[in-house]
């Protein structure tokens, strides 16, 4: 039973961490690609990505807005992938 619970928890953590990183990367792609900011997809992704980026969203302030999004939101995506890996390792040790 414990193995099953740990496996389910690891699966949920894995998908959530991956989903957070994907939202951030999609925001970067839409921004760099010049997607219409008024489009509902673009605005929805941005509204989800900004709180997920935490303090990374304004960590660096280069003049170029696209570079700012690449660096800050890219770092946030890497952060979430790192958190995902660490938490997964800890959860799997419970097994």
TrEMBL record:
Transmembrane segments: 7-30, 69-91
UniProt superkingdom: Bacteria
Keywords linked to the UniProt accession: Membrane, Transmembrane, Transmembrane helix
Record protein name field: YGGT family protein
Organism placement in taxonomy: Bacteria, Bacillati, Actinomycetota, Actinomycetes, Pseudonocardiales
